[in-house]
Amino acid sequence: MPPYTIVYFPVRGRCEAMRILLADQGQSWKEEVVTVDTWKQGSLKSSCLYGQLPKFEDGDLTLYQSNAMLRHLGRSLGLYGKDQREASLVDMVNDGVEDLRCKYISLIYTKYEEGKDDYVKALPGHLKPFETLLSQNQGGKAFIVGDQISFADYNLLDLLLIHQVLAPGCLDSFPLLSAYVARLSARPKIKAFLSSPDHVNRPINGNGKQ
Q: What is the per-residue pLDDT across 7-26, written as a single tens digit (0 to 9) for each?
């Protein structure tokens, strides 16, 4: 039986970065898909610590909050930098990813039609810090921190992939980020996952907007 279980809606949402991480690390996991009707019944929601999904199970450990899940897997699978300095930088990057993801979620679910143009115009300013970080690490030819992949790389990759759907060409003026996405997406297990029916057929968001 797979050691990990993801309990979530039938979307990529806040779990796809974790799925990419698990796939790349050769880990197996179980999906418990929650329909909107099941969620509206209320019993599952009331059992969740913060009244929200995703829920993640690792043996007898149950976690809520998607970034806590990523950090847990980072510690468990050696994806948290090689020392405390790198771990702190990984945390910083992941917090930056979360900031932009929250902006994206707000756009998708609250103001997509009227807000998309302004969001896309502001996007270069939000992407520039990640380009800068890459430029400061081995000329952008490695990972976002250090010379080994971290959980923040998977989170950033997912964030960049969904923004390429929202705004094709958004990385055209960021050569290091463009190469970074191509390089990570070409890792054999990530490439296989990104081309799998599970990923391709899973909507990015729950309202059809992307």
A: 999 999 999 999 999 999 99
